[in-house]
Amino acid sequence: NDETSVLQGQREAEKMIVEAYSALLLAFLSIE
Fold first, then answer.
1. What one-character-per-residue DSSP string does 1-32 give?
2. Annotated domain spans of the chain
3. Which tens digit of pLDDT belongs to each residue from 9-29?
4. What is the pLDDT of residue 1?
5. HSE-up of 16 (CA within 13 Å, CB side)?
6. Which domain of life is it from (predicted)?
7. CA-CA distance, 21 to 14, in Å (whole number)?
8. Residue 32: per-residue pLDDT
């Protein structure tokens, strides 16, 4: 099913965005 793979891709992308954001936040906090 195409819809399922699209939803799974979106979830993967969201996970990557959250991880990148967390890494940025950690880097920013460690600079302070």
1. -HHHHHHHHHHHHHHHHHHHHHHHHHHHHHH-
2. 1-32
3. 999 999 999 999 999 999 999
4. 81
5. 6
6. Eukaryota
7. 10
8. 80
